[in-house]
Amino acid sequence: MSRTRPLNHHRLGNLGTSILQSLLNAPPDSFCGITQFIACVSSESSERRLKFVFSRYENVQITRDDNVSAIKSSHVIILGVDPSQIEATLSDIAIIEALRGKLLISIVAGWTRDAIERLIDAEWEVWEGIRDQDTRGAWVLRTLPNVAALVSQSLTAIEDHPSPTFPPHFKDIATAIFTQIGKPMSIPPALMPATTAVSGSTPAFWAIIVDSLIDAAVAVGLPRKVAQEQIYQSMRGSAEMLQSGIQPGELRDMGTSPEGCTIAGVMVLEEGGVRGVLGKALRESVTVARAMGKAGEKGGEEVHVNDTRKI
Question: What 3-state class would DSSP assign to 106?
């Protein structure tokens, strides 16, 4: 492989910016020879922002409204457009032509690999007739990183078995890329809609929980900065313990004693139905994620027995 193999971030948003930052901070031999990066944006303000953020990196090029040229110059493309812009983006035959034979990594929530491939195939059918495998527009790999990519702690789901003929080295490239922003995890296609919410939505849930605990700590007398430091470290320590193999019930029991302050608080949580509320919130997010996945699907996905709404 060429040591200057470029990676194109198509339409670099907040998540794309975090991914690029993590890749630039990684050792240069970390991901299959990719050492050059092209970040594509559509607005002048985004162009100014990224040129400022990445001004010290000589191997990053920022382009605006020149996606075709950027894709032509790249071997690996990360597609990070807004879900509502997928159809508009992939209806450009010049982009489809530039993607031919390349690895297209989607980080777009709600769009399945099949749906993206059908959009690409539809353009080939319009312009060239029904294509065969030798004229495929791109090798599509669906992935789902989350906002923790900002601190290189993303849990990135990578769809397992993308297609029978998918080149194995492309999967290796994707795994190497997402290892630099956290932990990659191979996920079967059927579990990707649930993973969209379980991995992607829960950072926002944790933020709300932590924020409420900080407010309560301030209410009982702690300065906000002190409360933040204590709650953040408590959350981090708890996560470390759980990841070490300690089960949630065990961790709860470690901190409770008869007539103690912790069990008193736990009882309030139980009386308030916190488990049920959090469980329904996650199920609601998964329900919406399944609905989002219907956008490009013929007939959509079946309604799950535990979905919060019967669609």
Answer: strand
Interior/surface letters 71-97, b for 16+ CB within 10 angstroms, e for the rest: beebbbbbbbbeeeebeebbeeeebbb
Structural domain count of the chain: 2
Total-model pTM: 0.83
Q: Which of 188, 215, 237 is the last residue of a domain?
A: 188
pLDDT, one tens digit for every residue, the chain (311 residues): 333 456 666 556 678 888 888 888 887 677 667 889 999 988 899 899 999 999 999 999 999 988 899 999 999 999 988 888 888 888 888 898 899 889 999 999 889 898 898 888 765 555 454 444 444 578 999 999 999 998 889 999 999 977 788 898 999 999 999 999 999 999 999 999 899 999 999 999 999 999 999 999 999 999 999 999 999 999 999 999 999 999 999 999 999 999 999 999 999 999 999 999 999 999 999 998 888 876 555 544 566 767 777 65
Question: Same domain, yes or no, for 132 and 219?
Answer: no
